[in-house]
Amino acid sequence: MTTINWIDNYHEDHMAVLRLLAKLDGNIKEIDMGTKRQHVDMEFKEFADVIKDVIIPHFKQEESGIYARINEVSEKHQNFIKNMLDEHERLYLVFDQYITAADPLEEQAIIEPAKTIIEVLERHIKKEEEAIPILAKKLNIW
């Protein structure tokens, strides 16, 4: 994979997840307002699959790839990487809560983990989008 493909794919993954988080937020609002559409339950379950099949593997790839590489070559940025890894750990716990509540769907049990995922993961992605490509280029590791 070329450098451009790596960073393009990284960005595309993030944008796709942000779109799904917006959809998840809309589903929560439908429940809160009492206007839940029939297929919302399935969408909660589908997002659990996205967590398992897309987001967690993406995290693992970051942890063993770009995060590890930045830690190797830049002591200056180790605190940033530690914070990002701490967010991964927090999200892994919330992912477990969400996945457990998704199938069979426990509507009341899924709301809080879903809200936490939206809040923390959106912020996490934005930090990565702002910092990782610049750091990778600056440190000549892509």
Describe the protein:
The chain is elongated and about 50 Å long. Helices cover 85% and strands 0% of the residues. The model has no long low-confidence stretch (mean pLDDT 91). The chain has helices spanning 3-33, 40-64, 66-73, 78-102, 107-138.
Structural class: mainly alpha
Oligomer: single chain
Stretches where pLDDT is under 50 for at least 5 consecutive residues are none
Shape: elongated
How far the N terminus sits from the C terminus, by CA atoms, comes to 11 Å
Q: What is the helix tally?
A: 5
Query: How many individual domains?
Result: 1
Over all CA atoms, what is the radius of gyration?
17 Å
Summarize the structure.
This protein has one domain. Helices cover 85% and strands 0% of the residues.
Any descriptors?
142 residues; mainly alpha; 5 helices; elongated
Question: How is the secondary structure organized here?
Answer:
Blueprint: H1 3-33, H2 40-64, H3 66-73, H4 78-102, H5 107-138
